[in-house]
Every structure is written in structure tokens, then in C-alpha cells.
Amino acid sequence: MEPREAARLLAQTQADARRSLDFRAPWVSLVAAVVALASFGIVWLNVRTQHPFTGPSPVSLVCFYALIALRIATVIYAYARARTGVSGQSVKVQRNEAAVMGAALLACYLLLIAIATGAQHSAGFYWSLYLNGTLIALAAIWAGRSAIHKSWQQTALAVPVALIATVGAIAGPRGMWLVNGVGLCALLLANAAIGTSRRRGGTRTHTVRAGA
Amino acid sequence: MSAEALDPLIHVPARLQIVAALAALPDGDQLSFKRLQDMIELTPGNLITHLRKLEEAGYLTTSKTGSGPASRTSVALTHDGRHALETYATTLRGLLNGV
């Protein structure tokens, strides 16, 4: 085998293997962007003309959570597909992290439900607390975890999520749905574009190096 | 530097693909025989032959869990195997830069 051919084969195999084993594919981000825009958008369309403290209708919330469930299902599918046949330390770590995130999500909801039921305030106000509080908490946990692992791309994704959720909380019970939907959609689209360009760029760099 | 400087054990298309695919996993992770076969598209017999050669050299380890039809063979790159691939890639880069 010629060295040039060996370099091309090495680069191609490494790029294909990384792509195949990585569940954070650009299409997952793309689906998430559409889900973010559609789910928050449906509720925003419902609440935009009503009194700020009325809160979203049950139908719009069912649509919202159905789309969130779709998002979770796509992540589980992508993860299962990418990690089939893989075992060992990193799988255990990822499962533990998923359990921590799940527990954090549950804790956020329980805490916010306790706050809401303990006070006499309107539903719309507490919907903004539930969602944005949860988003900020989960994004902060994810940013911290990514920083510990020196996964800067994930940190760069988690920090803006927390910022968008903060701006959303400031925007109020009606504006938050629009801010979250548009903000998260734009962020996830940018993430998908960066992921696609990195994958293409990585293969091109290897090919150029191999053909040098 | 000539092509003879390249590790002859890795400098075979099928074995280079095996080592490169396993190196994409984090340290301490294993890949099932079936998944590895799907990734590099080798026949089971061919893959076993190459895996055996790499295992004999200490570049990878194989482990079998379960028994009968439910048994599963997993393959992992050793530290020696990872180091050998790094050395191979460095030598290859040197060769190409010298061309």
C-alpha cells in the first residue's frame, strides 16, 4: 500500500468511525431547531393576544409537550443507533449523566410546582417560571458538566441556552414563548450548521493532508 | 525515510481500518464484533484473522461474554495499539511531507 493511499484510508476510516459513533449529528440539532420553533410557537400563537396572566390553553400545552417528547425520542433514537455495540466506561458515564439530568428536570418541576401551589398567583406567570427556570437550571448543569470534560462546543451551546431562557423570563409570560422559540431555533440551527461544516471540513482537511 | 519504516502489522488496509475505527472510541471502551464488522465491511472470517494478528501483537484485546447464540465478542484497542497507531500516523506524515 502506497503511503498516500494509507493516509487517505486512515483519515477516511477515522472520520467515518467518529461520525458513526457520535450521536450529536447535525440532523438531531436540525430536528431540535424545528421542534423548538414549532412547540414554543404554538403556545405563543395561543397566548399572544390574551391577558398575560391567563396562561396557555390545555390544547396548546399538549401540543407543546408532544413536540418535546418527539425531541426526546429523536435523541434516544440517535443515541441508540450511534452507541449500538459500544460498551465500557464512557457508556456508564453517559448513562449516569442522563440520570442526573433527568433527576434535575424532575427536581426543577417539583420545586416550581411547590412554589406555584404555595402562592396565589396566576398560571401564566408560573408557566414562565416552570419552563425558563427549568431551562436555566438544566443548561447551567450541562454547561458545568461540559466545562469539566473540556467539551467546549457543548459549553458554547449550553451557555446561550441559559441566556435565552433568562431573556425569555424577562420578556414575561407572553413574550417568553416567542423569545425561547426563536432564540433556541436560531441557536440550534447555528449548531447544526457548525456541525455540518466541521464534518465536511474534517474530511476535507484529512483528504488534503493525505494528498499533499 | 521509506515505507519500510511503517509498522508492517498496521500497514495492511484491513488492519489499518480496524485500528483506526477502534481508536475513535474513548479509552476503556469496547466495540462489539458485529458493529466493527458493519463499520469496516469485512467478512467475519477475514475480520477474525486480522483481529487475531493484532491481538497476538498486543495491539488489541478481545473478550467474550455470555454463551451460545447470545454470546457477544467485544474488541478494544490497548494502550500499545493506540501508541502504535500514533507512531504509524506520525511516520506516515513524515513520509508524505518528504515526498
Describe the structure.
- The complex is a heterodimer of chains A (212) and B (99).
- By secondary structure, chain A is an all-alpha fold.
- Chain A is built from 6 helices and 1 strand, in the order H-H-H-E-H-H-H.
- Chain A has helices spanning 3-21, 26-47, 58-82, 89-118, 123-148, 152-211, and one strand at 86-88.
- In chain A, helix 2 packs antiparallel against helix 6 (152-211), helix 4 packs antiparallel against helix 5 (123-148) and helix 5 (123-148) crosses helix 6 (152-211).
- Chain A is elongated.
- Helix content of chain B is 53%, strand content 16%.
- Chain B is built from 4 helices and 3 strands.
- Chain B has helices spanning 13-23, 33-40, 44-56, 79-98, and strands at 29-32, 60-65, 72-77.
- Chain B has a 3-stranded antiparallel sheet with strand order 1-3-2.
- In chain B, strand 2 and strand 3 (72-77) form a beta hairpin.
- The mean pLDDT of chain B is 88.
- The chains are: A mainly alpha (212), B alpha+beta (99).
- Chains A and B meet through helix 1, strand 1 and helix 4 of A and helix 1, strand 1, helix 2 and helix 4 of B.
